[in-house]
Amino acid sequence: MNLAPILEKKQIHVCVPCRIDFGGTLDIATFYLPMAHLKPATLNLALDLRTHVYLYPWEQGRIKISSRGFDTIERGLDDKGWDSPMGLMFAVFQYFNAHGVHLHIESQSPVRSALGGSSCAAVAIIAAVYEALEKQIEPEHITWLAHHLENAVAGVLCGVQDQAAAAFGGVNLWEWTFGEKSPEFIRHPVFDSYEKQERLNRHLIVAYCGIPHESRDINSRWVNTFKSGKACDAFERISVLTRQFAEALGAFSFKEAARLMNQETAVRCEMTPDVLDNTGIKLWESAKAQGCGARFTGAGGGGCLWAIGEAPDIDKLKTQWQKILDPIDGAMILDTAIDPQGILVH
Hints:
The protein is an alpha+beta fold. The protein is 42% helix and 23% strand.
């Protein structure tokens, strides 16, 4: 399908939010299917650090992809292979048999920050192609299509939470289950209004540690220890903590939310001590000393940490975190807030 004639008549611009999370890994089928009796769930909060994708016309039979932080790549539709930093993006176009397109990606979150960037891009690209084809954009369908494409390309087991947060936005508890024929999720919004979501912004901070993360190793170790039976109790505990955290968050019980967050982080650190690097450990210890909770995002091992707590405690913690991050090249407190919206077409 040559998209160039369509894109010569209209420019396509779509954007989606990234996310911070609690109870990740439970969105991988290896975990949520054997644990179905516990109704495993993941909580995430969409952030307004959006990934923007633009589709422009290009040479028929060719696909060009450019993005901040990566080399520009161009290839023919018939070129095979997905083992490049842009492999997932090419796989999306290959799924649609689409060509004659220049994809440009602009992400407002740091590169490889463990905020779900590549999954966000896949969701946005799929939505952009549907917009170009004047087809209905259905968030649930796009969530699962992006997930299955990433699962196919990555060569490792992938979760669904990144795609879900990008497609829907807001603050949600995602319950992972199996329907009549395929996996499904049940979305439980934690708040019933935008005003309550906005109120949450006073109670959290997100920091980038300056070291890009690589989630495959930690995720694969969690999977392998769970499959061996050694980590089953730990992940059952995480499942319980996630639902308790969602309840505390929804009730604006931030001291309780902080306590539960620190418990979950401790369980993860016991399984995989390197889930927090040296900077992450300092940030976590600082949060606990201030009466706040802190947790890595995604699979940790670098990237971002986020904290929750009472507003005065968070204000003090922000100053402490900034002092810890100041000597580290690229590290920073991110200027971000909860994003109530998912896929946006401009």
